[in-house]
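Subject: Glucosyl-3-phosphoglycerate synthase structure
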Amino acid sequence: MGDFHQNGIITTLHNLANRPLEDMERELCEFAKTRPMSLILPCLYSELATDAMPNIIEHLKQVPYLDEIVIGLDRATEAEYRHALEFFSVLPQKHKVLWNDGPRLRAIDSVLKGEQLSPNDPGKGRNVWFCMGYNLAAGKAESIAMHDCDIVTYDRELLARLIYPVANPNFNYEFCKGFYARTANGKMNGRVSRLLVTPLLYSLKKVFGNLEYLDYLDSYRYPLAGEFSFRRDVMTDLRIPSDWGLEIGVLSEMKRNYSNNRLCQVDIADVYDHKHQDLSADNDDGGLSKMSIDITKAIFRKLATNGTIFNQETFRTIKATYYRAALDFIETYRNDAEINGLKLDVHQEEQAVELFASNVMKAGNMYLDNPMEAPFIPSWNRVVSAFPGVMKQLALAVEQDMQEFGPDK
């Protein structure tokens, strides 16, 4: 049960009364008459074989207010795309499956790459970006939600609570971020958020003072949550990273484009668990190691665009300040876990902090070595300006793929 405390500069919408789901869904059905709703599901083909995805589909089959579901499918051959179309065909809602590796979408991607208007590397950011482009091309949805496809504790109430703030016409929110407690199977999870982002923001404030951007990020209870919702016009000017900095990048863009009173966060689940990444201490290109580097670089770059000056000495100070703060937080988390009867391995926590401290320095060096790196995917407004017909081409390519490879073919 949450409380009603408002922390920071972003409105927090709590779960105070365990409102019946049916009541909320009835309201959402009324909202849908004037604000059609869409759901974006960025997924890998391999996720179709997990326990999470079939359960998510079973819950989505019962959602009455969605106008369309847009699925971005990565790493799929033709045979796997055919299977995916059959897999998702049980959805009663209108739905589209973007075959991101198919020849039609690859052809569009190749043209955009020729003008440096499409991301070079595959990944969640690129997948989400193309799904947003399709939503804009379809031109129907006014309120859009997005969530990950590896949530093993998924319940459709998560979606209802996530999309409600941007679907309710009595609210003025353009963007809503989901949050939840990362506990499951008697353990406290969420290491990157707990052991990297929280103490890193604390240390950056200690080094640079209470900058507005840092206060803003620190207002989000779970800044790395992959669940958020937004109004349609948000997608046109949004520039997002293609790497693990996606969630921080989206928050940074919302700060740049909208005033704080148009943004909120909402409690969407009492229990939340998803696929866990390995620490990958010996591999900076995988697992939590790469994630921590990408996230830290995203924060450094945003601070630099706001006028913060970095050098080697600055990053050494940040690393030292972060390391001490993170170790102190471990004691806080240990006590919090113990009073709730949860397990927390202090040794593993300290191993993670040691890795993250090293990666704070690596991220800083990467920034200094390449300060002009452009990590953001261009906004769809810019793409349309360069290629006015790209939206029609995108919508047509998706439609033709589904017609050619659908279950009845």
